[in-house]
Amino acid sequence: EVQLVESWGGLVQPGGSLRLSCAASGFTFRDYAMSWVRQAPGKGLEWVSRINPNSTVKTSAGSVKGRFTISRDNAKNTVYLQMNSLKPEDTAVYYCRVSGSPYWGQGTQVTVSS
Predict the structure, then answer these.
(1) Beta 10-12 vs 108-112: how paired, if at all?
(2) Per-residue pLDDT tens for 32-70?
(3) Which of 10, 48, 65, 106 is the most buried (most CB within 10 A)?
(4) DSSP bridge partners of 19
């Protein structure tokens, strides 16, 4: 059974940082690209970032480029999202996903507010 468990969301002030983690199990993690997707209150899903299986290709949405960094540790079956210079508009539920698949985590809430 594929499982994706996000963690380390929370409340942070504008300009602050958070590092999200997503622990994966039930599939061969090192063979799949992984993505982060978010959903702000009252809005649709927004793709955030993607990383290929060996970390050689990383892409990000324009709204987060230069502030968010995706990474992965294939030995730990974990993908990360380092979020710096957070803005109130980054407030959302963040999901990790096996790229191109129906497998998503349950999400972790990130709230950016003073």
Answers:
(1) parallel
(2) 999 999 999 999 999 999 999 999 999 999 999 999 999
(3) 48
(4) 82
